[in-house]
UniProtKB/TrEMBL annotation, chain A:
Cofactor dependence: [4Fe-4S] cluster; FMN
Keywords: 4Fe-4S, Flavoprotein, FMN, Iron, Iron-sulfur, Metal-binding, NAD, Quinone, Translocase
NADH-ubiquinone oxidoreductase 51kDa subunit iron-sulphur binding domain location: 329-374
Gene Ontology molecular function: any one: FMN binding
PANTHER family: NADH-QUINONE OXIDOREDUCTASE SUBUNIT F (PTHR43578:SF3)
EC identifiers of the protein: 7.1.1.-
UniProt catalytic activity: a quinone + NADH + 5 H(+)(in) = a quinol + NAD(+) + 4 H(+)(out)
Protein name as catalogued: NADH-quinone oxidoreductase subunit F
Function: NDH-1 shuttles electrons from NADH, via FMN and iron-sulfur (Fe-S) centers, to quinones in the respiratory chain.
Lineage: Bacteria, Candidatus Fischeribacteriota
One Pfam family recorded for the sequence: Complex1_51K
TrEMBL record, chain B:
Pfam families xrefs: Fer2_4, Fer4_7, Molybdop_Fe4S4, Molybdopterin, Molydop_binding, NADH-G_4Fe-4S_3
GO biological process: respiratory electron transport chain
Family annotation (InterPro entries): 2Fe-2S_ferredoxin-like_sf, 2Fe-2S_ferredoxin-type, 4Fe4S_Fe-S-bd, 4Fe4S_Fe_S_CS, Asp_de-COase-like_dom_sf, MoPterin_dinucl-bd_dom, Mopterin_OxRdtase, Mopterin_OxRdtase_4Fe-4S_dom
PANTHER family in the cross-refs: NADH-QUINONE OXIDOREDUCTASE SUBUNIT G, RESPIRATORY NITRATE REDUCTASE
Protein name: NADH dehydrogenase (Quinone) subunit G
Amino acid sequence: MAKEPIRILTKNWDIKNSNTIEAYIKNGGYKALEKAIKQMNPEQVMDEVKKSNLRGRGGAGFPAGVKWGFVPKDSDKLKYLCVNADEGEPGTFKDRYIMTLDPHMLLEGIAITSYAVGISAAYIYIRNEYIESIAILKTAIQEAKAKNYLGASILGSNFNLEIYVHRGAGAYIAGEETGLIESLEGKRAMPRIRPPFPAAVGVFNCPTVVNNVETIACVPSIIEHGGEWFAGIGVSKDGGTKLYAVSGHVNNPGVYELPVGTSLQKILYEHAGGIKGGELKAVIPGGISASVLAARECDIAMDCQSVAKAGSMLGSAGIIVMNNRVCMVEALFNIAEFYAEESCGQCTPCRSGSHWIKNILERILHGKGKTDDLEIMLSFIPGIMGRTICAFGDALCGPVQSFITKFRDEFEYHIIEGKCNIRNKLDIL
Amino acid sequence: MIRLKINDIPIEIEEGKTVLEAARAHNIRIPTLCNQADLAPYGGCRLCMVEIEGYQRPVTSCTLPCHDGMVVKTDSPQLKDLRRFTLELILSEHPYSCLICDKKEDCAKFMLCIQKEPVTLGCKYCSKDGKCELQVLVEELEIKEIPYPLTYRGLEVERWDPFFERDYNLCILCNRCVRACNEIRHAGVIQFQYRGPDTVVGTAFGLTHLETACQFCGACVDACPTGAMSERYGKWGGVPDKKVSTSCSFCSIACEVLLNVRDNAVISSEPEHHPLCVRGRFGISQFVHNPKRVTEPFLKKGTRIVEVEWDEALQAAVEKLREFKGRTGIIFSPNLTVEALDALIELENSGFGILGTSLDSLSAYADFSLEQFSKPAPIVVLNTDIIDDFSVLMLQIRKSWKEKTPLIVIDSAQTKTADKADVWLQPKLGKEEDLLQLLFSESDKRNTTGVANELIETVKAMFNGNGAYLFYNPSNIAHVKLPGSVKAIPLFARPNLSKIMNMQVQNSNDILHDDSIDCLFLVGESPSLKKTYKVIIAQDHFIPACGYDIFLPAATFAEVDGSFIALDGKRRTLNKAIEPVGKSKPDDWIIKEITNNLGVEAGTTTRAKEPTQKATPKQVKPTGKYPFHLVVRENNYRFRNKSLSSLMKGFKKFRNDDCLWIHPADAENLKLKDGKKVQIISKDFSLTMTAKVTDSVPAGTVYAFHDPSAGLVMDKIVRLECIES
Ligand SMILES: Cc1cc2nc3c(=O)[nH]c(=O)nc-3n(C[C@H](O)[C@H](O)[C@H](O)COP(=O)(O)O)c2cc1C
Ligand code: SF4
Ligand code: SF4
Ligand code: SF4
Ligand code: SF4
Ligand code: FES
């Protein structure tokens, strides 16, 4: 396709005052909303999004148009949109850029989505720590309302929409869609049992669409340029560009917008400036819930199916890079500690299992591991994976299983020698 | 109807039931912990996993609705492994040494004495021993060892609230208590807090339960599968020998209750078909086996009081009744059995004395049944604290309603119900009827109620032409005229109303003011006396405050067979759970013995006086001399001659019902401090109470609970004097 890099989500980021409505409109903003409302009916909008092969950017990679289609049309209840801006997955920091640098793209996406699904109230459930983004979003909503892109009778039509910014309560699990809904209702973020899915019974018992910030921010360009155009950018069944957030041992960490399916090698070496401080040892390709890939497995394309085929997942595309000076026991302990702290506590295997995995890793790390510790940890996996209310349990198992099987020698060294093979000394934290 | 197969057994079940429910209906056991039939499915413990043909993974049967053609397997080696793994994890968070001890069968013989340790480290130290669901599951899943060391949370045991204690070191986070509190009681007092391994049940901001809206109903305690929540009084009572179904007599609702009995003692009580309130759940065993209870007959001989045998006590009573024939007032409590009331009629018919009771406003009495409330409508509560006093009734009424209707409270005082209400209207004292008129009829009367017009309009909009249910306190409101769409239900605290109405008895006040009466026979009552009597015969569980010459110990409702009439006009049965404690005897037995020994010639009925119809007392305005209006509220936490607070510490903490509620501004003027003694003086009485300074009551008004033995029986104008600073 184009030699010029394709910029959809980041196209306005370099402009001065990119987060003001003036700058946004000057660069063609809110044209898509106008097009949707004036020239298309809601079904046509939804069809374009289906055609675009836009997949959810929050982690599960579910096709967005299909999800919207699950919302019952004949329900006489109100329908809601919840934009997931909790961005809790460690290694993920892309949504914040969108909200800070181009909030109107998100708002326009929300408006189009709401028009397509028949929604009149949308919530942006935002991570409490994003103080700057919260202020910017609130201003942007006022600006858009003043110009009638939001509010009552938008652009003279009979479509009304209110957007509310709801500050999260500071828990990772509040990013899980049903945990988010509970939290939004003022309760403790405890994921719900599915079915029913949010599309049928969501917030306040009403049909609800939950989508990630980036997913929604893709919608305006899909409407502007057409679903087929968007689908043509990515790979089959996985369209468009993606914000890859690269962190860890690279020379240029940051957020890179590249077509879905760009090779990991290209992202790491051409865009992120190569490995810093040593050789590549491992990559976590999609936030810490994704299984780790050893250096030799890193020759893959970064789209949902390819990463899945390699035994991991694209997840939120938060790429965490580790060089050969990283102790994998310590890295896994770090991850396990996070999960043990963040489990909502509902399901036995998740709550107690994450606690034990953390405890066992802690003793291995401190040189007090026992010979059967690895087997004990691996034996947890069938009891946790797929056995819990939400995907948190799976998210915990992926890293544990992959770290231990792929870097087993390091774990065994810790256990047998009582010290770290990387630092070659007893690790005292 | 849905057809499915569980373990190759064909099963039919109505739509909407879960696989677990289908299995249970056919006695197929699936291990569970977090499931409780009357609570919403939770799916947290993950023990109830089953395999479904065509499903990739095992699923929790408690959350899975049945589908046609489903093929379910509830047991397989894989499932057993999975359940074991899960239970082992659960136990790693719970002191498990005794659970898996291979000597546990023999342990009880030798180690009983170590119970009551301050910390529970194993079953033998736990009050739930023998009743715990973990013990059953460990046996069922044959767990012999646990590969993980115990993570003891090391939390402080919460012993600071009345009625029950919480040791969350034993909690397995099944969430049943949380759901019970929310779903059964709509109280929302407890919730999980913190995350991960720190997750723990608790109240908002770590408040004590007393500081929250906790009703101390015990639904949480009953839901708990472990010893984490335990009843304070009955916790060491052990495993009951039997459970006896009877009716709670503490209030007019008359809930079905199960009494747990061991060695002829009531060790605890639990709900049978519907929830109980704090009185029925925690009050019964403490009441029956109260240390203040007197279970032997006593006689005053000169200046000494001596214990005597029944023969002598009855003989003495009969002699006195003969001596004071025609000059005896028999004052009885409505909290008696129908059989005892019948026996009293016989006694009165013998012409030895006149009967009286302290019930007012009986004319408002109307039967009602729960079926009357099938249609959801807003609930208006007038001058009664329905959450404290009639919570069970409200829960039952609302249970069948799918939608939640508004709760509107009209009360000059801020009660617990007012706190929970959607709208609380605080009219000026005495303006309640006017406010009702404004709310329910198109009256163009000027609004002098003190409630803002907008608020009245808001409430009217809530009725939306659908009518409402009005629950009111019969002793506060004399006459309310309402449109047909409003169903008004007076809430009487005492039972047996229809029966007592037909008995045509005197008002006890008339008897007490009658100078010709020289002998009192008090059956379950203890009035405040206006004169000295030659003889007082008291028949009760506790010594009356007014003193006595002859005491006849009566058996409590847990110790008798009989019946009484509940608020809905229906008869409730009392089934004897234990033999009468000590030498106490059933009320009807005592009365019949007396009547028989009096040797009555039939047909000598002489009624001393026709019952007088009581006029509604005129409202007197506070004056310079008596600047305060004393409002006396019905006390539903009184039974026979005692308030529950005077008998049980828990009720004292929970109700604080011997306090005088006074507004901070008034207290300040009087230089009266919270918790200090204050003297209340009116034209015809004077008594001392403890002040509770609270802005829940309006200035210029003080509130107290009805207490006949202290003379607190009706509203008055009073003066207050500090006697403690
Ligand atoms: C434990 C857990 C945490 C999650 N956190 C987030 C999050 O912070 N942000 C997010 O967008 N999605 C998160 N998700 C994914 C959401 O559940 C949900 O799939 C997503 O918001 C759907 O939006 P999408 O279809 O646009 O991706 C999380 C999922 C799990 C299981
Ligand atoms: S899997 Fe973990 S986070 Fe998810 S509901 Fe269960 S306990 Fe909570
Ligand atoms: S006693 Fe009743 S109200 Fe109090 S916490 Fe338990 S269930 Fe809730
Ligand atoms: S206190 Fe009891 S009922 Fe409540 S969660 Fe813990 S174990 Fe379950
Ligand atoms: S509501 Fe009345 S009958 Fe029911 S338990 Fe409480 S006191 Fe007893
Ligand atoms: S009983 Fe089904 S998960 Fe606990």
